[in-house]
Amino acid sequence: MDYFIELLFGGLTRGSIYALIALGYTMVYGIIGLINFAHGEIYMIGAFTSFIIATVLSIYGFPLLAIVVIAGLAATVWSSAYGFTVEKLAYRPLRKAPRLAPLISAIGMSIFLQNYVLLAQTSDFLPFPALIPEFAFMEPVAHIVGSSDLVILITTTLVMIGLTFLIKFTKIGKAMRATAQDKTMAVLVGINVDRVISATFIIGSALAAIGGLLIASHIGQINFYIGFIAGIKAFTAAVLGGVGSIPGAVLGSLVLGLTESFATGYVSSDYEDVFAFSLLVLILIFKPSGLLGKAETKKV
Amino acid sequence: MLELRNVSAGYGNIQVLHNLDLVINSGEIITLIGANGAGKSTTLMAISGIVPVRSGKILFEGEPIHKISPEKLVAMGICQVPEGRHIFPALTVQENLDMGAFLRNDKDGIKDDLDYVFSLFPILAERRNQDGGTLSGGEQQMLAMSRALMARPKLLLLDEPSMGLAPLIIKQIFGIVRKINKDHNTTIFLVEQNANQALHIADRGYVIENGVITISDSAENLLKNQDVQKAYLGI
Lengths: 300, 235
Prior knowledge:
Number of strands of chain B: 10
Strand content of chain A: under 5%
Radius of gyration of chain A: 19 Å
Shape of chain A: globular
Number of domains of chain A: 1
Strand content of chain B: 25-35%
Order of helices and strands of chain A: HHHHEHHHHEHHH
CATH architecture of chain A: Orthogonal Bundle
Strand order of the largest sheet of chain A: 1-2
Number of helices of chain B: 10
Distance between the termini of chain B: 34 Å
Structural class of chain B: alpha/beta
Number of helices of chain A: 11
Structural class of chain A: mainly alpha
CATH class of chain A: Mainly Alpha
CATH topology of chain A: ABC transporter involved in vitamin B12 uptake, BtuC
Number of strands of chain A: 2
Largest sheet of chain A: 2 strands, antiparallel
Strand order of the largest sheet of chain B: 6-7-8-3-9-10
Oligomer: heterodimer
């Protein structure tokens, strides 16, 4: 039973990190219909930024909490700046081009950012400082649920609540939904669509950066390639849940995380990806729009 | 209030509007009638800044506006209810109306206008928490018009409000168009295929054929005009 619970929490942790990244994919897809392949790299840049800041600050002997907060903020801001710039440089000029063009541009951006970090840093795995301490109160259950699992779960839950609030009740959130549903009409009610798209990229990138910080601290090492793998997994999760749907991205991520965790625990870690992608294929066969994606109803 | 001078516009290689001239005075209801593909919607989209103007000028209150971005035109007071209503399907009725007031910050004014549109269309108040996509065609038209009114427009552009609606609803909608014009002195530019109804509420009308204005006259005279009767009124 302990083993089951351990796998369950492992899966939830994994799933919530996927969710932080998958939300960026799904929000961008919802608004401009583009799979932003460079999104995984934004997450990787978030991890690197927090790595650099955390390392520097720990040399100067900052307390752990301060390091986490400052590194987290820096990673969010820096990644958002990248997300914003990538959209402006690589996608905006292609807004009216055929759909394939921005997609290729996205793949190009992904390769560019990977190699840029490879050259600027190194291809080696870098040891990431443990930013999340082992809490004393977690000791009795530490063999089942780690402290960092707990922190990741709580942080992602809070972030999701914040995001839901933002999208449901704020002006920019409503504008995002309106733009996703009908771009022409959004313009006709006075929404600056370019600004909404930029905001979407910034929010998505910020979420990915938080994910980058959390997972890097959880796993303890990073390199330039982590964004690619995580990006593919999160993209899978977004498709699984129904790309374009925000609750779908969260659900898909949790399903994917749990599947991987149980497959690793009960079968073999070699089969982790086999199970994950088999699940994707099955869901796409039986429900092509994903778990929560649905065909829109339009009245004329 | 609005003047189109020698306007040409189109999409890609296709030019739709050829040297269009048109004048709308403040407080008027003006209608533009024409067949499918004559360039009615393109005219509205050119005014709203969605379709670029290739040559000529569009003046609003004396200022050239054909190079101004669409969202700024909304702020200046030009609002369009496009063909096919374009309700945000997954936003509630209330949220759709909120989007109409997107550029406004005067809470009291917004509240007044909300009360006003609910008085025009009480059914919308009943359905305010329902998704826009679940409304009937007539209700969607009411919502689309109300959403535009929430921006408190000086000039309201209506693109075929009668399309696909039952005769009784059409009558109600046209009655309300007239009421909006009276209540707030809102200038209305109404594009219609339903020429008979449109001419009965309009002050003046233009007839457009293949992107060219062919007739311009008072609504009364247009109703009596034999060419118009034959082509658009089915008499």
